[in-house]
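@channel sequence for tomorrow's demo:
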Amino acid sequence: MNIRPNAFQRFLHRLLLPRPVSAFVAVVLHHVDALLLRLTNNRYTVTEFAGLPVLQLTTIGAKTGKQRKTMLVRLQEGEKIALIASNYGRAHNPGWYYNLKANPECQVLFNEKSATYIAHEAEGEEREKYWQLALSYYAGYEKYRARAVHRRIPVMVLKPKTKQDGFVAKHP
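structure tokens (generated this afternoon):
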């Protein structure tokens, strides 16, 4: 990805950093983004207005086996997509993280296109590379890391599913 938040968008990011604000945003934003995405035929979200590229992730619930859809910030590098499981600095990892750990195959929708991906948790240099990329888009991740000192914020990397995985990724 080569689009970085502009000065106004970085200002908005700073407004979202205080704990009470991010606690509110954590509960509301993904619902607002999902609604706006539906209303605009998969074209616009509030999060993108704030300068952060998003995707809709569809996972299979680790406990329920049911489909779960979540709006997340995406960090793209070529065909790979990194997801930061910050959960706004809360005490626990987000549900989608556990879903991907239990069922790594997922559906990703962004830019009006859907494809199947396989997830893995980044470690070592790969994790650090994507963490630094995340910070270049949203400095708030560092604040979330400070709030979540009792846990290490996971970074999940999604790669398009290939023939070697038993399936060709669909890119309509």
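heads up for whoever presents: The first strand starts at residue 54 and ends at 60.
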